[in-house]
Specification:
It is a single chain. The protein has helices spanning 3-69, 90-100, 190-193; strands at 103-113, 116-128, 141-152, 154-155, 166-170, 173-177, 194-198. The protein is α+β, with helices and mostly antiparallel strands and 200 residues long. The chain has one domain. The protein is elongated. A hairpin with a 2-residue loop joins strand 1 (103-113) and strand 2. Helix 1 runs antiparallel to helix 2. It has a 4-stranded antiparallel β-sheet.
């Protein structure tokens, strides 16, 4: 082999090593970003679940209040269009669902979006992003927040006499309630009267 060819090979080797190092660094960096994205997604899932759990618990309380008011309270229809909700067990429900998703609720409170009552939840993951090429990720936890609302599904005409039969139109499904002859079996599932959904 001539000296000229041997010299060219010697110049190519450092470039090859340099390019390989750059590619390896890029691969590790992308892996670190993937780890962070996974942690963020997990945090958002936990926040969504916690907010929905809180709203569903409050919806159950609305149903219990409605069941107890029909035939007893002349203003029982107010339970179908609540302006505010007590949600005594909502916080505990949010805590439980967050824990199931390996997270902790850091902020919790009632909210109102588009006139619908609900709850806003913020969580912090119990796990970290993990070791990566980016310094500090081994101790970095992910946060996320979510809001879920309770939307009444039924339209109705308020009768002149609170003891008259009320016809509810719940998103196309008819539900008749007779306060004078009421049975708990007359009420449909809570999901027919109220929807629980994440706020947009």
């Amino acid at each position: 082999m001539t000296p000229g060819l041997r010299s060219d090979r010697g110049q190519t080797l450092p470039i090859y090593i340099w390019l390989t190092g750059i590619l390896l660094f890029a691969a590790f960096a992308l892996f670190a970003f993937a780890q962070a994205a996974s942690a963020r997604n997990g945090a958002q899932s936990a926040a969504d679940a916690a907010a929905l759990a809180a709203a569903q618990d409050a919806r159950d309380e609305l149903m219990e209040g409605l069941e107890g008011a029909i035939g007893v309270d002349d203003n029982w229809l107010d339970w179908l269009d609540p302006e505010g909700i007590e949600g005594n067990g909502a916080a505990a429900a949010a805590d439980a669902l967050a824990a199931e998703n390996d997270a902790t609720v850091t902020e919790f409170g009632p909210s109102t979006t588009a006139e619908y009552p609900g709850y806003r939840v913020q969580i912090l993951t119990n796990y970290t992003v993990g070791d990566s090429i980016i310094p500090g990720t081994e101790g970095m936890q992910a946060t996320a927040d979510a809001e879920a609302v309770i939307r009444p599904r039924c339209d109705f005409d308020v009768p002149d006499d609170p003891k008259d039969v009320v016809e509810l139109n719940c998103d196309g499904k008819r539900v008749d309630i007779d306060p004078e002859d009421f049975d708990l079996d007359d009420l449909p599932d809570a999901s027919v009267l109220f929807s629980v959904q994440l706020a947009e």
